[in-house]
Amino acid sequence: MKACVLVEPGKYSIEDIPMPEIKEDEVLVRVLTSGICVNDVRDYKGSKWSYPRVGGHEYSAVVEKIGSEVDPSMVQVGDHVIPYIIDDCGMCYDCKHHHENICANFTKGTSYFNPDGLSGFFGFSEYVAVPARHLYVYPKETPDAEAAFTEPLACVINSINRSNIKMGDDVVVIGGGVMGLLHVLCAKKQGARVILSETDAARREFGLKMGADVVINPLESDPVEQVKKLTGGRGANVVENTTAIPSVAAQSIEMTAKSGVCNMFSSIHPNDPILVDAGRLHSQEIVVTGTQNGTIETFAQAIDCISKGIINVKPLIEAVYPYQEIKDAMECACRPDTYKVMVQFSK
Predict the structure, then answer these.
(1) Which helix (H) or strand (E) holds 205?
(2) Distances from the Cα of 42 to the Cαs of 175, 210, 249, 269, 330, in angstroms?
(3) Which superkingdom does the taxonomy of this entry point to (predicted)?
């Protein structure tokens, strides 16, 4: 089968690699459309994971073959599916307490390090072997490119659920990229007034079209003061920080209101420590938290929201490239002005 192999940072090769052999409890799926994640971009530029690498974890697929122990009443050949990509061990403390999305063993498998061959999630290849328990079947009439948003939307729904947004809340979303705008869409569905903080004028304009009620430019003046002015001096009930910048993380806490929630959605690069007024957190009962990955439940919620038309992800699709043009697709995804770039393997 064909695969887009990242041989080393900046160098892709379309190669023939062996077709995966499925185990009794696995399913062979044929990849339809695969989204390029910011983590794929980081791998392209050079990351700590092992090379050669076949990335791609945001993909839709169709079932080609099922293992002998897979219940055919649950999944059948021809079903359109989304894989849950967290290789949770099911045994550790986190897994046993419904935190499988932060399983301690997740990054220890060959998805990240494989000294004997290819690492990665293999969404940038024609076929993938997936445990049957990790599959979500979606309606065939749902466009495959939109279904491929399940993983990023699942991450955002995990963030929204943890933030406990209430109707009438003021919610600040920091960052107008794909993940920020998915937060805008979801927070609006929760009944919030959404304030989008974004430095780029075109993205601020697009954010308004996507449902943001107010946009601010954090470079014009102190964004904390801008948020306080918009909220009668209180600050925001919920702040969702989707940026990787330490100084912005510090500001996101400062603009959170009494009894509010500040969520660090993004990983921080570089992960420099920030100063926090712990006394204010205490006296004003402010919660600072973080969210990582989607959960088993939020993957189900995400594909339901997409397939039922509750969340419209289509405007966020920047471009779809044939897999043979993976390098052009990745270069497009690397640009700061683009949204979700996708790679298509089959229809």
Answers:
(1) helix 201-209
(2) 18, 27, 20, 11, 10
(3) Bacteria
User: Is 328 in a helix, a strand, or coil?
Assistant: helix
Q: 308: closest CA among 188, 141, 105, 193?
A: 141
Give φ, ψ of 272 to 5 degrees.
-80, 145
In whole angstroms, give the CA distance from residue 224 to residue 307: 37
CA distance linking residue 89 with residue 96, whole number of Å = 10
In this model, does residue 93 exceed pLDDT 80?
yes
Calculate what percentage of the chain has a pLDDT beyond 70: 100
Q: pLDDT band for 181, please (50, 70, 90 cuts).
A: very high
Asked whether the predicted pLDDT for residue 347 surpasses 80, the reply is no
- Is-contact 107 92, C-beta < 8 A? no
For the ranges 101-110, 149-158, 306-315, the lowest mean pLDDT is seen at: 101-110
240: tokens are 């969702």
* CB distance 299 to 151 below 8 Å: yes
Domains of the chain: 2-149+313-344 (3.90.180.10), 159-290 (3.40.50.720)
DSSP string, 155-204: HHHHHHHHHT--TT-EEEEE--SHHHHHHHHHHHHTT-EEEEE-S-HHHH
Q: Are 309 and 146 in contact (CB under 8 A)?
A: no
23 to 63, 73, 98: CA distances (angstroms): 15, 18, 26
Model pLDDT, residue 346: 86
User: Per residue, what are the HEC states of 16-72?
Assistant: ECCCCCCCCCEEEEEEEEEECCHHHHHHHHCCCCCCCECCCCEEEEEEEEECCCCCC
